[in-house]
Amino acid sequence: MKQLDVFLKLVERFRELISEIFFKGQEPDWLLPLINLFLFVTIILLGIWGGLFVISQIIKIWIEQIRPLYYNREEKQRLLKRQRFADHIEREIRQLNTREEWKDYRFTELEAEVEAEGRRVGFSILPFFQSTKRGLRREKSLSKSLKSSRERLILVEGEPGSGKSVALRHVAEKLSRLAMKDKSIKSVIPLYINLKKLERRSNVKINRELIESFVKQELNRVNDRDVEQFLDEEFQRGVREGTWLFLFDSFDELPEVLSSVEADAAIRNYAEAIDDFLNGFNKCRGIIASRQFRGPKHLGWPRFRILPLESRRWELIRKAELKPRIEKEISGQLRIAPQEIQDMTKNPMFLGILCEDMRDGSPFPENTHSVFENYLEKRLTRDTDRLQKRFKLKPAEVRTAAEKVAFCMSIDPSLGLSPTRKGIRGAMSRLGFSFTGNLDKYLNALEYLKLARSEEIVAGDSQFFTFAHRRFQEYFATCVVLNDLNQVNPRQLLTDGRWRETAVVIFQTQPPEVFAPILAEARYLLDEIIGNIPGLIDDPVGYVNQEATNENLSVPKPFSWPTGLLPLLGLLQDGFISRIKELPDYIQMQAGRFLLTASIEGTLADRKWSLEVAGITPQPVLLWLLRDGFASDSQWLKEVAYRQTARLREIPDDIAAYIRKALVTLFARDRLNKEFLATHAHLTRLDRASQYINVLRLLKWITPIDIVLHIGVFFCLIGLLKFSKPELVVLIASVLFISHRALREVPDSANLFLSIFPPFTLGYIRSYNGSVFLGMLGILSIYFRLIFFPFSWSIFAIFAANLGQFTHPFWWFSLLLFPVLYLTVKFREIIRFIISNFKKIIKFIISNFKQIALAAFLYWSMSVVLDWIINHLNSVVIKILSFSYIIAVFCIFLLGMFVLIKYFGLWLKDWIRWLKWLKIPSFPITAQELLSLITLYNHPGFSKSLIITIRERNSLLIAEDSEQLIDELALALESFIVFKKQRSKIKKRQFRSFLKNPLYAIKHLSKQLKLSMKSPGTRTRERINNYSGSEFFNAWLKQYTLKDESRLVNLGSEFLDEIYILLEQIRARRQNSSVEK
Question: What is the CATH number of domain 75-307?
Fold first, then answer.
């Protein structure tokens, strides 16, 4: 009872406080019932939430703790067997870590950060109602991202040595320990499978049966009878129940994949075999780890990218257990080291090698090649006596053997990364390599030094040999090539996927005179590929110096990419990204000519491919392509622009400005909250990332702060009026509501209006997509906020974000003084600008006197009208206007409710149809059926989800017309978006002409009246007739846009992104099918 008395006293105090603040102690009769109703509803909602929370916890305890107590004898035996098998898995992982000298305690709190895609569990207040969100985000570890992800199938990508294998093994060890203790038969047991040991006989097909047999073989490597019996009893049952977690490691190290480039059939055959194995009746989650270059991208699985170490590398250095002096030296030298060393130490394996190297007394290295050289030289020489005593070998002899073995494994595609010793001997004989003594002695010595290891699949088989890490093999093989470049001809280095990494290493580490023959071949190859392509821009640098961004609004057409060009440009980019000055100008110019032309004339996909390899173009061309990417509405293209910007050691000021303006554009398009996590993940990659993240956070908080300002002003005004004039309350509420809702029009409207004042333009936004009415609404909102000064905070915050000044949270409360702060900081620059451009400024003021006078007149008029209203509240005119205004607001409210109910009804209808479709078992569909499914949905979000689901399920049949129809859909949508931008451009010009001469508005109105005489169907037919496609697609497009010509363009840029991603998947699968035939 005491608690209830305290609560009642608090309620009474709250009522007195409200009464004193707003009503000066004379509260109206309705105040107390309103407070009581509010408290009653709050208590009911809290009670419901509390009940749901308690029920959810009871269910959780029942499943995890109580239910296992009532297992029958068979279930208890099954639980015991599963716990023993989990112990077997955990022991296998520990033994593997021991062979590779990996101490897991160093990794426990330093799991690799990942950049994750796909669906994830969102924050939800209500139990049982978990929300699901989709998009890119950054997670602290792979295990945490797996826990929050709702995706069943995931592709983990990362650079060599980035920690993919270690991360998977850590997840496997962590989950297996949990399964050992779990009392439920539904616990998930991880199964770690290293694919690089998968050897296939020529008469065995690459299918799900091959994958399943290999998985069982790997799980019972020790040939244990109990393990074999457990797998016979439980494997298929676990597959159906989803109680396994398949961790497929080293996809890019499959023997048949090693000899392939990305487009070859081997990659797709194995990828689709694994995909088939993990689908159908298999309900388990699956993860594939691979390098990006040879990864199974076409599967459409969400990707988890293992990110380079940033600040966490200092933590890894501390965990290396170095002497304090060495630890201090490494930490200090890294901060002033060359860029290539700093980039290298963001890789966990490289950083570990550097720590071991300096632990042994080596000085801090000058380049990355010397790190490997010093480390491996020490590994070979520190045990000289033991090598001599145990194997009768010298370090130089062991190194020579390692180089020859690594070279054989690279050049002979039949060997793979884990060849038998018999296979190595055969390759040595074929290549003419010889040794003094027995080859096994050299291989045993490499294993003794922990540079390699032996593995046996089953007892009695020939031993398999593999290097401790793929990077070691690549290094030794590259040494052979460096000693004699004739071992592999330059064209093979540039075009054969087996030697891609070697070519990249040569470009990254060797002096120019060493790789000069390879560059000469690259120049000849480029001339051969693109020399005869007509219509390329002759001078790309001159072109971009004239054009600030891509203003080409013509209908896009697919650009023809010669075979082999994209992989070649990608190789050159990876090799020269940190030493671009050493790449010949001619190669940069040739790449710039082709990529710039493809970006200007091609489709969105062409722009994306161009930007992906634009790192080797001349700097002005790269910056132009980056600006074009940031200015695009496509998030797909922006992701590539962010990745390319992250390659720049220092971001130029103009690119920094475009990044900020891209963020402002997201805010103006109301997409910032939706894409916040993805954008934040991209920004963290950039140089001076904190500056851009501050801008992002400020833009995110502008809307909530603006709401608080409007609510505060509203209550202050009605408190002053004491609710004595209901019509004024309605007026104030509606005006404040419109003022807040028009906030997102402010950046566009400011550009639209200030475009007549070029020196004062807020910033470049790609195109104004709103109507003239919304533009005027945004302009009036700016004036209104300038009159009610507290509301100006939001405008100044947008200016601050656009200029990148005073965006740190410390300055947020001072942004009302932003003009003063900015003038204080930039005072000298402003004075210098005024002095140097004084005549131009005077000339500008004279030539634009009408516009300046109009702006001043509008501001003065609004101020006078508001002042008159405040001083004549009791006049008859105000009462009539107030009454009329209330009626107008009521009518608009009814109309808005009608539109809202209609919209909700259409959305609900789409939602029900969507749920029914999801319940239908997955089966292949044709492209025609996909277009028919798109027609069923009115809401663009469901159409987008449909495309994503079809892509993730690989449900689209690869027929001859599939690629054509999807390509036509992408081209049509992109063309319609271009038409919309053309109309927006025309509207902007019209608006400027209206401001200069109001008579133009009358002429425009008469034209609109004549145009309105045409029926919507006639206008739609005219638009459709302008687009040429196949007969089926034209008929579908005509039907789809029959009632609403804007229906297609309303699907938006996000839908277009998903269509192009689906199109890439279709092309990859068709290419695979053609190779098989």
Answer: 3.40.50
